[in-house]
Amino acid sequence: MKETRLGDFEETLLLLVGILDKEAYAFKIAEEFESQTSRAVSIGAVHSTLNRLMEKGFLESEMGESTAERGGRRKRIYTITASGQRTLQEARDFKVSLWNQFPAFAGSKLNFNI
Amino acid sequence: MKNSKNHITPPRLAEKLLNWFIKDELAEEVLGDLDEKFHSTLKQHSARKAKRNYWFQVINYLRPFAFKFFKNKNSTISPMKLHFKLAFRLFRKNTLISFASLTSIVVGVFSTFLIYLWVNSEQTTDQFHTNYAKLYIPVIQQSAVDEYEPINTSLFFKADYSKYSEIEGSVQTIYMSPNRLKLSYNNEIYRGGGMITDSTFFDYFDFKLIDGNPNEVLKKPSNILLTQSMAKRIFGDSEPIGELIEISQRGSFQVAGILEDIPSNSSMTFDFILPIHAQSFWGTAGIEFLLVNNSFDKNAFDEKIAGLGRNHPQFKESTLSTVAFSDTYFNEQLNTDLLSKHGQAYELDTMRLVALVILLVSILNFTNMQSTLSFSQLKAKSIKQIHGAEKKDFVFELVASRLVYMVISIIVTYVLFLVIKPTYLNFLNLTLDMNELNVLGLISAATFVFIIATTLVALLQTVRISSVKALSGQLNNIKSFKAGKVLTTVQYVFAIALIIATGVIFKQFKYMQNKDLGFDKENLVSFGFFDRVEYSGDDKEFYEKSQEQKKNYDFVVNELAKIPGVEHFSQGKTPFDNSISGMPWKLVNSNYEYSEIKLLSADANYAETVGLKIIEGRFFSDSLDVQRQNKVVINKAAMEFWGIENLEDAKLASSYWGGEGDPYQVIGVVENFHYEHLSRKIAPLVMVNFENIENPFTLKVQEERFKATIESVSELFQTFNPNQKFTYTVLEDKLNTQYEREKKLTQTFVIFTLIAVILSSIGLFTMALYETQKRIKEIGIRKVVGASTGQVIALLSTNFMKWVLLAFIIAWPIAWYLMEKWLDNFANQTPLSWWIFAGAGLTASILAMLTVIGQSFSAASQNPVKALRAE
Predict the structure, then answer these.
(1) Which one of A55, B214, B470, B736 is CB 3.0 to 4.6 Å from B378, fit for a cystine?
(2) Residues in domain Transcription regulator PadR N-terminal (chain A) (predicted)?
(3) Is the pLDDT assigned to residue B490 strictly greater than 50?
């Protein structure tokens, strides 16, 4: 059976793939992750997670164009699938519902504008 | 600046590494990404940092998903998984061969491991002491003709080793055998071996203390240390520390420490330790150990101390030297109570040889069976080859199948060991200083090596067969089958040689057990009765006590004579006493020099009690002799030694006892009898008539009244020693325990031999199985044409028996030579009889017949139509 749960790191990467759109390949995603979170990550770790997300059916990929910087090698561009988008939404909704049940924050003071 | 960095490329080695392990389909994108990363790092940081980062990224790609050699979840079935699946299937389908192969590995590794445990324990005897190689024992040779004996140089010669720079220090040890010290606690009496030693003992020897500080416990003269099992014996489960133990004639001692039990690979054993300064003199001198440093040179030092003892009036011609402690277990077996446990180098060699043979036999066996199996798979293999399987695939297939065997056999061996362990260790009296993990590791390593060895042989064999030949059915011409026969023959050579060896060893052992000892060993019982009278310095008190004891003694002697079951009794060392020592004797008025002759003290009843045969003259007698007269009885060996012809002229003299000025008249000669262990030749013996009240009694008891007699003696004993338990030894029991070691080793040997023989039979069995299967069509045709079942069996069997016969011819001379050498280790040897050799041949051929004929019969009795119809 395929595992369809979404881990924290997986969720972040999935969002980054969405943000980067046409530029979503392993190196760029890792760079973006580092600049957004200021946490170091290896390309291998990112690649392995992307691979897992593909296995779960949240991502699909195809080879893109090559550049000189890459020594003429092509890059693999990732795009979110419909099921990936649905899972992301579900993850967000779930967290919001949790936030709403949190008595200190529920209702008045904090507004998440959703 | 930027331009200057353009030529910098990622580290080549890292790139190579990545290319080596990464999946081909990932290589392009990953290398591209890493290049981009490298250049972007280069823009902001130094080249070194960029390179370091590249390495970091490469290492981080060492993940299952990117790994070439890892199975890919997306493809339906990976090659490796397939190999394992096939290996398992093959394993299950050919139950017989799989099981036999597995038995081969398990038995081979397991037997070798068990033998290794014993050999290792023997070989590392005493090596747990850190100073093992740095300890030396001073020994003295009283004159040129004497043997070396350990001596306490500090006590006798006031030797001062501090002036020798190569000596770090010395420690004295006195060993008290269990009958010399009597421990009592709560009016119960306990006995055990006692080690009396200096407070620095633990600086020299690494016996472990469970309780107590090794530097302190022996400083206080009233302390005693007990081993764990001794403490358990006395105190049961209650706390021993601080308790007081009385030691008769020595005072009371407080338990200050508990020792771990002495390991089995220690040549010295004892049950408790007492500080030597608790008493000024302990009655015996004991032996000394010197701790040397690196500048020690044995020869130079021996020369320095050679004359150290010559000032002493008793040791005027003596020569001092040293013996390495590390040599005392195997090579220089000293005559001392403390180091009385000895090993035999030939026993180790024998066991090693057995282990080697078993290992070889099992490796051959395994290879043989596996190649038989792989030949039966040849057609399948050819088809795979035609479908594009490469050589490397077959290697993987082999590796997978061997891995399956390896894992299963490691588990089986380990479990088997856990089951056998207590029995085995107990049987050989071993303590194991390995934890379970070490054991598992060793077993795994051994199995691994085993598998590697067999795999290498298999690789050499299988790769050369062409698929075409296999498919077209030309298998009979393949040379490898001959190789299998040769291997089986070699196995049989080993097996036959081992059967012969077992026969000889058994015969030698039986011979030692049943040899006429020269005395009647039946129903001889010995026991101690009187203790030595204590001497506290008061002469009058001592005299009175001695008189009292003499009176008691006379009474006891009278009473013993009255007990109806006692046939004879005597005071004197019973034969097989280990402590019979020697003295320099010579024949007066002859050219002989003084030579070391064993001395036995016996009273007038000794010959009758023990059952000695007098061949000339007479034995001591109460009516003619008084004790301590200058009269001796000698044995036949002594008579021959000095060439004595006429007893009346024969006088002996000892340099210890007045020399030739005070000679001893020989009054009789007894037939040779084994007064020592049977592994020794009967040496010349001189017997003197010395009575000693505290000597043990030896009784000859009537067999039918044995129990009642022991009870009466016990009662008599209790009236004089109300607090002591009556203990006695039956000579036959003692004899048996003396042979215990040999007996156990022989049994172990027999078991392992049996294993080797069974393994060889399994090998032959599988060979026969395959051979007959291969010739099933031929058999069918022969039967159709008119051959009888008997003829077919004969045809098939002779084919194998040929090889077994060849094995005999090779094995006989080898075994003959080896056993001749082995028997040289014994003073009393049994001759090598032809029937052992014939018997071994017969046994092996019967075994071979049984295994082969079973196969041949089932093949021959089959309906030939069945065999011919199937294609």
Answers:
(1) B470
(2) 19-90
(3) yes
Query: Closest Cα of chain A to B40: distance in Å?
Result: 9
pLDDT tens track for B321-351: 898 998 888 877 776 778 877 787 878 888 8
Residue B257 dihedral angles phi and psi, to the nearest 5°: -165, 155
pLDDT, tens digit, 9 for 90 and up, residues B640-669: 888 888 888 888 888 777 778 888 889 999
Per-residue pLDDT tens for B15-51? 888 888 888 888 888 888 888 889 888 888 888 899 9
Q: Do A70 and B36 touch (CB under 8 A)?
A: yes
- Calculate how close chain B gets to A76, using CA atoms only, in Å: 6
Alpha carbons B699 and B729: distance in angstroms, whole number: 10
Nearest-CA distance from A111 to chain B in Å?
Answer: 40
Domain ranges of chain B: 2-66, 132-327, 345-512+740-869, 524-701
pLDDT attached to residue A82: 92
pLDDT at B311 over 90: no
The string of pLDDT tens digits covering residues B82-120 is: 777 777 887 777 777 888 888 889 999 999 999 898 888
Smallest Cβ distance to A48: which of B29, B59, B65? B65
* B29 closest CB neighbour out of A48, A69, A75: A75
Q: Which residues of A touch B29 (CB under 8 A)?
A: 25-26, 63, 73-76
Name which of A10, A33, A47 to mutate to probe chain B: the one with the most chain B Cβ atoms within 10 A of its Cβ.
Answer: A47
Contact B596, B561 (CB under 8 A): no
Is the CB of residue B523 less than 8 Å from the CB of residue B706? yes
Q: Is B249 helix (H, G, I), strand (E, B) or coil?
A: coil
Please, which residues have CB within 8 angstroms of residue B596's CB and are 6 or more apart in sequence?
A: B145, B146, B147, B582, B583, B584
Q: Do A74 and B28 make contact, defined as CB atoms within 8 angstroms? A: yes
Across the interface, whether the CB atoms of A44 and B33 are under 8 A apart is answered no
User: Among B162-171, B457-466, B573-582, which is the least confidently predicted range?
Assistant: B457-466
For A21: left if phi > 0, alpha if psi spans -120 to 50, otherwise beta; the answer is left
Query: Minimal Cα distance from A30: which residue of B?
Result: B37
Nearest CB partner across the interface for B32, out of A42, A44, A70: A70
Higher pLDDT, B865 or B475: B865
Q: Stretch B390-419: mean pLDDT, rounded?
A: 86
Flag if A55 and B73 touch (Cβ within 8 Å). yes
Which of A27, A48, A70 minimises the CB distance to B63? A48
User: Each residue of B690-720: b (16+ CB within 10 Å) or e?
Assistant: beebebbbbbbbeeebeeebbebbeebbeee
User: How many degrees, rounded to 5, is the angle at CA B490 between CA B486 and CA B491?
Assistant: 115
Helices B740-774 and B776-785 pack at an angle, to 10 degrees, of 70
Do residue B33 and residue A66 have CB atoms under 8 angstroms apart?
A: no
Q: Look at residue B470 in the predicted model and tell me its pLDDT.
A: 59
Does position B476 have pLDDT exceeding 60, yes or no? Answer: no
Contact between chains at A42 and B36 (C-beta distance less than 8 A): no
**Best CATH choice for the domain A8-101 from the list 3.40.50.9100, 1.10.510.10, 1.10.10.10, 3.40.47.10:** 1.10.10.10
In this predicted complex, what is the ipTM?
0.85
Alpha-carbon distance B114 to B413, whole Å? 11
Q: B57 vs A63: CB contact, 8 Å cut-off?
A: no
